[in-house]
Please model this.
Amino acid sequence: MSDRADPLRSFRDRFLLPDGVIYLDGNSLGPLPRATPDRIATVIRREWGQSLVGAWNDHGWIDLARRVGDKIGRLIGADQGGTIVADSTSINIFKCLTAALTLRPDRTVILTETGNFPTDIYIAEGIARASLRVVDDPVAALDADVAVLMLTQVNYRTGAMHDIASITAAAHRAGTLVLWDLSHSAGAVPLTIGADEVDFAVGCGYKYLNGGPGAPAFLSVAASHWPDLRFPLTGWLGHADPFAFDPSFRPAAGVAGGVVGTPPILSLAALEVGVDLMLEAPIDLVREKSVALTERFLTAMEAREFRSITPADPTRRGSQVSFRHPDGYAIVLALIARGVIGDFRAPDVMRFGFAPLYVRYQDVDDAVAILDDVMRAEVWRDPRYQQRRAVT
Ligand SMILES: *Cc1c(COP(=O)(O)O)cnc(C)c1O
Model:
């Protein structure tokens, strides 16, 4: 495949990427969409600056969390009206796990897999009324005590991807609800969580959705649960009628009860630009190119000294590939100094994300050539690249 024949090639120009950079870290922080600065400037100067508090009505701020949620819902194939944007992924995990436990009052176990993203595990550990089980093979560990199975579809470290439909069906056969974390999936792989009968889903706005640093997260709940849904954080904007200022809480119907407090309008506006851009790109083409990019990189790396920890079968991996190397941290820093931006996950994993809207096939070949230079001259041995920075 060549960039000239790439049906997605025009999307690259919709991002503001610095010259000379090959950005292979969009799975950690998506780059800046070209339209975002103007959109934010408009929200600040015109909407906030001129309309002041009236903007909540006049510019639709009060519906923004719902509106962007509906768009993300389309991207992940959720039940219509079942997705909102609110808070961070960590907080949404807490809200969904607790809501799931409430729907299964006779069960107390949260089940997850070894190697799940730390915040998912930490949040589950913090829920006092549940006990957490962390196992290598969670499907085999399903039993009548498990209220909710919490999994991340694409593993942040290895890039390995679970099959949502079959695992969800297995959980349901055991009477267990599922919470899928789609942080490394939304905007990267085709999703049909409504048809797959996923009970709860959460995910990040700042990775493949390109919503900007700290963008709010999404949360989605299957329509079948809306009648009995109770979220644990009962803030005024999750009330059925917030502006009635009732003396006590009455939950809004469905997923709207998952909103807690006032939404971050500037961040939501930025996220909407990223999501709109993603919705323009046919997700099947995104996936096709993602597989082609990761395949090309894997093949080149395997021919060198790098051993992949990412599944070789493209149907079993997401949009990133990882390699273990004892000097991985220094190599990643040396690559970054030469414009190839990947990242490192302790203790020894070099990780590269391939976001098909702006990564070109030529970028893959160039990244490999730059890596060859770094390895041949042992550039990574430079003491500059040995020092750990706060964010890896
Ligand atoms: C990135 C990521 C998160 C991040 O959670 P925040 O609350 O946004 O910091 C959570 N879970 C997974 C699986 C992730 O990849």
